Amino acid sequence: MLFPSFAFLVFLPLVFLGYWYAFAKNLRLQNIFLLVASYLFYGWWDWRFLGLLFFSSVADFLIGLAIDRAPTIRTKRRWVALSVLINLSLLGTFKYFNFFVDGMHDLLATVGLQPNLPLLRILLPVGISFYTFQSLSYTIDIRRGSIKATHDPIAFLAFVSFFPQLVAGPIERATNLLPQFLTPRQFDRGSAVDGLRQMLWGFFKKLVVADTCGVLANEAFAGDVSATPGISLFFGVFFFAFQIYGDFSGYSDIAIGCARLFGIRLSQNFATPYFSRSISEFWRRWHISLSTWFRDYVYMPLGGWRTKWGRLRNILITFAVSGLWHGANWTFIVWGVLHGLFYVPEILRNGKARRDVASLRDLPSMLWTFTLVLVAWVFFRSATVRTAFAYLYYMVANAFLHPGALLKWLARPEFGWVLVLLVVEWLARKQEHALERLPGSVVLRWAIYLLITLVLLLYIDLSVPNEFIYFQF
């Protein structure tokens, strides 16, 4: 089920009313109701995906209990290894099997062999990368002693399948989300209202910014780059940068805001990443739940992070794996490695993380960081590594072809919406979301709500599927 759809418009109020009015006095019934609603939400795409979600969840629930009861560290590690094997096998089969088969085919072909290797004709389950990582972190954290295994299967299944964040995050840790399903929840009107505000801003980023910018980005990447002015190619990747940001952070805003309607707090997933002054800061602000997941479960366990060369090695490995997580294509791996390479100068000069908020005097460093991110986005968006290099080459080679195209792009309404997004988020960069703290005047607040709603009504079409980019990951 999609957030911007008529089905969700009916689904959410019904679940909200049942949750708070029919089952509010019984935590277990409330969790059962939320679990059923979450499975309905997920099964709306394809009911066959439900079996995989259920199997993965039950396996890690039982393994969590086994880890808790295991008498020795060695036995606990074996149970964690089984959890890793199950989750990565599911992920590898559905997402990467054909990628590795194609790679093996190409390798054998280079030595003169003509292999006939089998390919799987299967659909990629929506959100499989998200819920397998969320479930996997649970067993690892039990082994580390960060959390005790739960004996409540309903609460655990609800934790893994919680519908607002199930298919595109944030990737929640059991230490944060699971306890919220184990303790009674009280309705908080202020939190719910703020959640609605965050959802409103999320829909604006998705429908007004991401979907409109996506049309222009698709045209740029589908065209003949050799005959396209360099400035048009630049704006193609520029609009893709705001398509993917508006799309993904918009989903996170809707998910986090929706969760607050049910008295549940999810982790912040984006913190104005395009105002970053370095690549390291960018990754502290972009897809935060995934960045910290790889930091805690890949980068740190690799060891050697206390030395400069150990950090270099681990950064490159972690970013390469992060790229592969995004999809079974060499373009994603190159995208990840590029970010790792962009990170290298900071390690070599022992750069310290900046925790203060950016100001206008930081504009040069913000523009430089944004430029590096744009270069990497070319690979992320392109179908092949070769077409990505061609895109970058002609963006430079055709830089002075039809320079007047600049005015055409700056005059487009899509560019105007990007500016609106940037201005609003710049003014609210110290907040968790753009509409968190609005002017005290009730009239002014409602005028802002009404204005955003009217803009949304101009762009929304509930009859057309508005899928989110990260559903494919």
What does this structure look like?
By secondary structure, this protein is mainly α. The protein has two domains: 6-185, no CATH class; 190-277 and 354-462, no CATH class. 68% of the residues lie in helices and 0% in strands. The protein contains 18 helices and no strands. Helix 1 (6-22) packs antiparallel against helix 2, helix 3 (49-69) packs across helix 4 and helix 13 (330-348) runs antiparallel to helix 14 (363-381). The longest helix is centred in the first third of the chain and has 38 residues, at 73-110. The radius of gyration is 23 Å and the shape is globular. The model is unreliable at 99-109 (pLDDT under 50).
